[in-house]
Amino acid sequence: MGRAPCCDKANVKRGPWSPDEDMLLRNYVEKHGTGGNWIALPSKAGLKRCGKSCRLRWLNYLRPDIKHGGYTEEEDNLICTIYKNIGSRWSVIASHLPGRTDNDVKNYWNTKLKKKMMARDQSASSTTTTTTPESSLPSDHTTQTSLKVEPSEEYYSTGTSSAGHENNGMIGNYWSEYGDGEMEAMLFELGFLRSYETQEVGDGGPWLPPTLSNLWEFSDLP
DNA sequence: AAGTTGGTCAACCGCAGGTGC
DNA sequence: CGCACCTGCGGTTGACCAACT
Questions:
Q1: Contact, A151 vs A136, CB < 8 A?
Q2: A94-113: per-residue pLDDT in tens?
Q3: Over 80: is that where the pLDDT of A207 sits?
Q4: Which parts of chain A fold into alpha helices (H)?
Q5: Which residues sit opposite A193 in a β-bridge?
Q6: Staple partner for A38: which of A51, A124, A134, A165, CB 3.0–4.6 Å?
Q7: A114 sits within 7 Å of strand C by its CB
Q8: Gap between the Cα atoms of A118 and A139, Å rounded
Q9: Model's pTM, two decimal places?
Q10: Is A215 helix (H, G, I), strand (E, B) or coil?
């Protein structure tokens, strides 16, 4: 016997949300929070919806800090960079783009950014023979397990970037934008850093930008 | 004007992992 | 330890709209 369904599909509404439903959900969450229980929330809020549907609606559309559309060049580059290194882990990618959701980033990538980056890739390869990470999208990897990016010295050392990180290429570029704390957390989360602790960050110790010697090779990414 | 095609995006589905009992 | 429940995630679908034929 399989698992019980999360809700009684016969008695829940599906499809697009109406303004009334949005209002009910927004009012309830703003007043009571989610209570850590999305399953029970619909009945409490007076909605005939599945808890998962409510959660999705709130996270992807109703949350007050949500941004829709209007992606900047910086966001494009960041999405592309992270995607190339970790694949389609949209929640991780979205966590580095304030106001963006995984669903939004995923849709944006699938509908626009992938083509944009491919076009950029083609134009870049027609003008130069050198391959940089920005211009070497993996042809296709829909699953994390298939992700095998060759370690590239260029990735870390081709750039002339911000002060103090001039030997870290593209990563250094992001350092200038996000700062040490953001980047150390990001790299650690992505599995680039061999050891968060050994960097002596967060306890007053000196923070050193990662080099090839203290980064995981991409093929060993978790 | 009608039909077709392609793009966009909200929403759904099913699975994996975490957690509490 | 095993089970059930819940959340979060990534892939996919389908409705809607605009552009094109």
A1: no
A2: 988 888 999 999 999 988 88
A3: no
A4: 19-32, 41-45, 51-57, 73-86, 90-95, 102-108, 114-127, 153-157, 169-190
A5: A215
A6: A51
A7: no
A8: 9
A9: 0.64
A10: strand
Q: Does domain A11-62 have CATH number 1.10.10.60?
A: yes
Mean of all residue pLDDT scores within chain A? 64
Residue type, position A59, single letter:
L
Judge whether A191 and A222 are in contact, CB under 8 Å.
yes
Q: Give the CA diameter of chain A.
A: 61
Q: Tokens for A62, please give them.
A: 């109703």
Task: Decide if pLDDT at A10 tops 70.
Answer: no
Residue type, A170: M
> Which tokens go with A10?
């016969």
How far is it, in rounded angstroms, from Cα A44 to Cα A35?
A: 11
Distance A33 CA to B20 C1' (A): 22
Tokens of A55: 């959660």
- A16 CB closer than 7 A to any strand B atom: yes
Annotated domain spans of chain A: 11-62, 73-220
